[in-house]
Write a structure and sequence with these properties.
The chain is mostly helical. Helices cover 76% and strands 0% of the residues. It is globular, with a radius of gyration of 18 Å.
Length: 147
């Protein structure tokens, strides 16, 4: 079963069970997928769908970070619950150690010598980590190892 099929089945089940939180999240992601497919006239593959899930996850994590010190616990709790649901659909995230190994391999493959070669390293690295690691974390590790 592809991620799209799983998403559609889970959406139907959430509607039957009146699970509004799961239904809302799945509808948001499905709308994002359909919008990309319509705009670009393509059919998204698994990685593309995971990218939409990751984008929605990132939005919610930024909201949680912004509201961390506030007394808006209702919004915080809703966003955390949505993040937990989205995590069920995302592929397992790479650890920092795993990312470092991939960065070292990319540095070797690209022949990078300094921070000036960061673009070349990222070109080699991104297909391996896309959807499996936070881009900021990858960027930080590349800078640290090149710098």
């Amino acid at each position: 079963m592809t991620i799209k099929e799983r998403m559609l089945e889970d959406l139907k089940e959430a509607m039957k069970n009146k699970d509004t939180l799961r239904k809302d999240i799945l509808q948001i992601v499905r709308a994002g997928v359909l919008q990309i497919e319509k705009d670009q006239k393509i059919t998204l593959d698994e990685a593309g769908v995971f990218e939409v899930f990751a984008k929605e996850y990132k939005k919610r994590s930024e909201t949680v970070a912004e509201l961390a010190g506030s007394d808006r616990t209702d919004i915080l709790e809703k966003n955390k619950a949505e993040m937990a649901l989205i995590e069920l659909y995302l592929p397992a995230q790479l650890s920092e150690a795993e990312i470092e190994v991939l960065v070292q391999q990319a540095i070797t493959t690209s022949g990078a010598l300094s921070a000036r070669d960061m673009g070349n390293v990222m070109k080699v690295l991104m297909p391996d980590v896309k959807g499996k690691a936070d881009g900021k974390l990858v960027n930080t590790i590349v800078k640290r190892l090149l710098g």
